[in-house]
Amino acid sequence: MMEKVRLGEIVSFKTGKLDSNAAKPSGEYPFFTCSQETFKTDTYAFDTEAVLLGGNNANGIYPLKYYSGKFNAYQRTYVIRSLDKSRLINRYLFYALYPKLDLLRTISTGVATKFLTLRILEHIDIELPLLLTQQKIAAILSAYDDLIENNLKRIKILEEMAQMIYREWFVNFRFPEHEKVKMVKSELRMIPKGWQVKKMSEVADVIDCLHSKKPKAIEEGTKILLQLFNIGDSGKMDMSKKFSISEEDYALWTRRIEASEGDCVITNVGRIAAVGQIPQGIKAALGRNMTAVRAKPEHMTPSFLIQYLLSPHMQNEVLMKK
Prior knowledge:
Helix content is about 30%, strand content about 25%. A six-stranded mixed beta sheet has the order 2-8-5-7-3-4. Strands 13-21-18-19-15 form a five-stranded mixed beta sheet. The chain has a two-stranded antiparallel ribbon with strand order 1-10. By secondary structure, it is an alpha+beta fold. The longest helix has about 40 residues, at about 130-170.
């Protein structure tokens, strides 16, 4: 039978000292906070192998990461390390803690913001197989993580290429054989002959979420309420974390629209904090401060719409109209 041990018996806990404004876009070292995103900063306080666990989150969706090297951490981020590497290796510790994230969400404290206290973490039980088994588990899962990371990098390159092509063709008008096309005046600016200027309402359905009170999350359920953490970089929706709600709440929150495959979702319209596109096979309710934009198929495709919404051109138009 596999041994189970209390986490507090086999690891050490430290927290960072920095506050969130220590993040520097051009920083040299990783900066781990309570965000799913890893930032950068100019200084490091740790030079070690560790598991990083965010200690607070509005929805209890705590970031869990593994890192080895020089880094820094936010004051509510736990830096967790094995006390005895002959019993527990840090890489296995990361994989052992990952299935506990749902449990941590349910037992964390707080109302508006969820918190993980040291006492909660110390009393979590983890399975502790033989050291050789830990090494095998860590090696296999690390290989999969590396493969996923490489694929994500390739996807990011393709997404950047898509945006570059969009800007060249539809903003700068340097599309194939553009030299042969005459430019004519429009209400906005000079555009290629045969092109039209349309309002968004003419080519897409734009529907806001009008609800204000957030429904209660449930542990088990198939109905999803979209949250800001679901919207990743370059328009990609991250559905690995789900805010599940009851059937009754879902019916209430989808009376205006049920967001589905191909729909674009914008948060904080007027500033555009994030833009994402619903992936294949997903249906969900819009969270607070979210707007769905659905392309009218007779006018444009969802793939064109997402590139337009992600473009600096769109961002500038919103700012100009505020």
